[in-house]
Amino acid sequence: AQSVTQLDSQVPVFEEAPVELRCNYSSSVSVYLFWYVQYPNQGLQLLLKYLSGSTLVKGINGFEAEFNKSQTSFHLRKPSVHISDTAEYFCAVSSASYDKVIFGPGTSLSVIP
Amino acid sequence: ETGVTQSPTHLIKTRGQQVTLRCSSQSGHNTVSWYQQALGQGPQFIFQYYREEENGRGNFPPRFSGLQFPNYSSELNVNALELDDSALYLCASSPEGGGANVLTFGAGSRLTVL
Prior knowledge:
The structure holds two protein chains of two kinds.
Chain A (H helix, E strand, L loop, with lengths): L2 E3 L4 E5 L4 E3 L2 E3 L4 E8 L5 E7 L5 E3 L5 E5 L4 E6 L8 E9 L5 E3 L3 E6 L1
Parallel strand pairs in A: 2-12
Antiparallel strand pairs in A: 1-4, 3-9, 5-6, 5-10, 7-8, 8-9, 10-11, 10-12
Chain B lengths: L4 E3 L2 E4 L5 E6 L6 E7 L6 E7 L2 E5 L6 E5 L5 E5 L8 E8 L9 E2 L3 E5 L1
Parallel strand pairs in B: 2-11
Antiparallel strand pairs in B: 1-3, 3-8, 4-5, 4-9, 5-6, 7-8, 9-10, 9-11
């Protein structure tokens, strides 16, 4: 069975500082990996995805993530955050062979002015 | 292209009642997945529909059921509502093949059970 762990439930960071949101997954098969963002009272928006190829994936809004198969991690990074990045961030995993997408519990990013 | 639309956006029901939530998939997408997101938690997979058939189900009881129509829109039905069913219900569509598990989400239907 697949699962996702997000080690930090809340991450406060000052505006213009860098941030890393951690994600680890478990799966017995090859995986697709995703990061989604959810703003208050909204649905989820895809930030970036890893399906195959380069392990460094760039997404929208200046975010990037690196797939590390040996450490089963897919951490999300941004070099300089803005107030508008305040939101809930979800890491998700899916088997390359199945369609079900499993989400982690989420990390609440709060950007402090 | 149109995105995923869900209705209603908010609704309040009482225990024991039944509810139907609706979802129109994004143009060109023929797969619809439903998720339940309780307050402060990640989305939990309920089930997925592909070509009008259920194609995978999460750990939810049979009183959670669904339909997909020929135009790929979908309904989620929940019978005998319980207080714990209070949540945001998210619909997501995806294209067939090659990106079947890359989801486009709607804004959700927030259900409150009293």
